[in-house]
Design brief:
Elements lengths: L2 H14 L6 H11 L23 H13 L16 H17 L4
Helix pairs in contact: 1-2, 3-4
């Protein structure tokens, strides 16, 4: 378990996004970035979250996308956002875009 990666991800998101992560979101993010096998590869490269209405799905995917594209060790990281509608997919893109424009150093 890569505790440093998990802590870095959570602190970066909470620094730039206008919300604090709830425990469930921290768990999902930790599985996505910090649980690795003995070779150092992510143990869960694909994660499926089945969540109800108003449970923070867009905020979670926006935060995870932001974390991945802002990793200085990975150049040109590709992120795909898939949703049931174009409007919903644009929401996460716009969330990340807003964070980047709000913080010029990014």
């Amino acid at each position: 378990i890569d505790i440093k990666a998990m802590d870095t991800t959570v602190s970066k998101i909470e620094r730039y996004f206008p919300f604090k992560l709830i425990d469930l979101q921290k768990l999902v993010l930790s599985l996505a970035v910090g649980v690795r096998d003995t070779d150092g590869l992510l143990l869960f490269p694909d994660i499926f979250c089945y969540m109800g209405r108003c449970s923070g799905k867009n905020g979670l995917i926006s935060a995870l996308a932001f974390d991945r594209i802002s990793d200085p060790d990975i150049r040109n990281y590709h992120v795909n956002i898939v949703a049931m509608s174009e409007e919903q997919a644009k929401t996460s893109f716009q969330d990340v875009y807003q964070v980047i424009t709000d913080h010029p150093r990014l």
